[in-house]
Amino acid sequence: MIESSSPIDLVLALVRVVNGEAPRLAASEILDPMVEIRMDSTGYCGIDAWYKWVHSIRNCGRVADLRTLRCPRPVACLPVGPVDGNDPSAADT
């Protein structure tokens, strides 16, 4: 895993992977091999699942020309632990 990059640089590197501007395998330098993914009520674990997720959102279904864009205004980063998308109190964080 890349240790010397800032958190913002790491997120932007992952955005480049999701956007298709960098190969999916580049994520192995950033993500933990046991990365956890939660979609709806289902959870997956492992870098191979992450690669499949990126492939799926880019190539399957109704998503076309997926791009993650820079926010037009400054965004603050708050250090918090993982949030369960099904937790109603998560809206308060």
Question: Explain this structure to me?
Answer:
There is one protein chain. The protein has a two-stranded antiparallel sheet. The model is unreliable at 87-93 (pLDDT under 50). The protein contains two helices and two strands, in the order αββα. With 93 residues, it is α+β, with helices and mostly antiparallel strands.
Write the SSE topology.
Layout: H1 7-19, E1 36-39, E2 42-45, H2 47-59
Antiparallel strand pairs: 1-2
Coarse morphology:
globular
Please give the number of β-strands: 2
Structural class call reads alpha+beta
- Could you name the ranges where pLDDT drops below 50 across 5 or more consecutive residues? 87-93
Order of helix and strand elements from N to C terminus: HEEH
Helix content: 25-40%
The main sheet orders its strands as 1-2
Provide mean pLDDT, rounded.
75
State the gist of this model:
With 93 residues, this protein is an alpha+beta fold. The protein is built from two helices and two strands; from the N terminus they run αββα.
